[in-house]
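Box S2. Input/output pair 1.
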Amino acid sequence: MSLAAALEPLSQLVHRGGASGVTGSCHQLLYGDHRSLLIDCGLFQGEDAEQDEFKQLTVDFDVAGIDALVVTYVHIDHVGRLPYLLAAGFTGPIFCSQPSAKLLPLVIEDALKIGFTRDARLIDRFLQQVEQQLVPISFGTWHTLRSSADCHVKIKLKRAGHILGSSYVEVALRDPLNKRRQRVVFSGDLGAANSPLLPAPKAPATADVLVLESTYGNRLHEGRVDRAAKLKRAIEQALHNQGTVIVPAFSIGRTQELLYELEGIIHRAGDRSLWHSLEIIVDSPLAARFTQVYRDLKPFWDDEARARVRAGRHPLQFATLYTVDSHEAHEQTVRYLADSGRPAVVIAASGMCTGGRVVNYLKAMLGDARHQVLFVGYQGAGTPGRDIQRYGPQGGWVMLDGERYDIKAGVTTISGYSAHADQAGLLGFVKQMRHWPRSIHLVHGDAEARRALKVALESLAAKHGKALKVTLPVNQPE
């Protein structure tokens, strides 16, 4: 082997999104003779989005050499640019976990209706194309992506514990000629410890390069007992005030976890409590469809959740749970709850209040002190959710659909319900590896979170005598 060949890296990373901010996940791994693998193709949101909306939707890098797309999970900031990737000419396989394969068409259909077209024929044609390219694979099994004279590439998905079907990706590269190997791991979004419904992620044995999310790289979550108590108190406060608890939540993942936790509170409270008659309203047809898929995928639940089912309980389908389907029924529900003072819990998308049905509840109820807004997930910079979270406790205001709304409703945040690993969880993911990575790229976090996690990782490496280079990459969209 020549010295030049020995020194030349087997792969190169280019971040097409998700490096300079939290959203827009898209990472390209280049290898061999102008070939590559794409990990995610997500939409930019909040401050990450371009002022020119069309520009931030486009895929302006060459797709000709992309062997495959791997979807870590199906939130819109990880798959929202898929229609534009296919429009740019990508015809290769789309690998994902088996649960993600069930959920992805629902997400893409909704994304198309909101941002692309409502033409049913066009949507159906596109979904058929996605179905043709979709390749569901089992967790923990290697799949050969490329086998050529200059490069051999395999991928494996492992459970990430973030939402149902979420994965992290191991990529094994081998140079047959020079007998060199490299292992690159993409964390996707890692789940928090003790999350409802899903088992916690287990770290891989080894990695040479790790692309690690850092959404909560500067924070620690509350424990599960504490967060359940806080959830219960926030709802009981609204009950006392004869008001509604508005919970902005993503249709997939967070909604189902909340239903699971609420069923547990209702079960422990007993038949004679106010909780037993409290209406839990899911106002999102998409969330209702996702919840049904979650029910159908019980084999992928964790041991605790399956034990509840064996005990005769229904964690995602209980007596006081109601869903709102039509837009007319949605408008009636908003008016009824705003005017009547009947206590209720409403879970509605979007999770960062950037659109969707939750905005109508906020418009109707933010100005009334009886009500509560309860945040249980990350609120990206530049989103209405972040503004309500930040300024609501000070009696501030927020802009919704171009209009100013004063905030008199209570505002509570429970960080412990985040589906993201906190700093301790992210450090633990690295620490659990038998062979630590030599290089870590921190992505999917704001500047403060990435810097804090970088310092923490370097301190951890020094403590354990490890040589570790931690970088803060930037997006390279073109």
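Box S3. Input/output pair 2.
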Amino acid sequence: MSVTDAQRAVLEGWLRRRTTAQALAQRSRIVLECAEGRSIMEVLRRLRIAPETVRTWRRRFIERGLDGLCDDPRPGVPRKITDADVERVIVKTLEETCRRTPHRPTDELAPTALAQSARGS
């Protein structure tokens, strides 16, 4: 199985990045191990995974390249909340203040908290 230099760089990047999903990291390891010329049996022993797992991700990489390592859409009812809706709620939560409660930066709160703790309240 051959892997281009660009593909290898992406796969190794996925392995180094702390935020990569464990499933994607494992798939990257499988492909890199196979690209080193190891047999399916060697890969499954080294990574302690099922033979079908190695075969599946090896085959998908050969057929679709890096895109083959990502999860396929799952069956079921389509999402009702869009990514735009989620983003709008997050922005509103982080950037707007409540009308009933005035927003005070944390550096303004610190002296108040210290004064109250000094008074014992």
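Caption for Box S3: Residues 30 and 47 are 8 Å apart (CA to CA). The chain has six helices and no strands.
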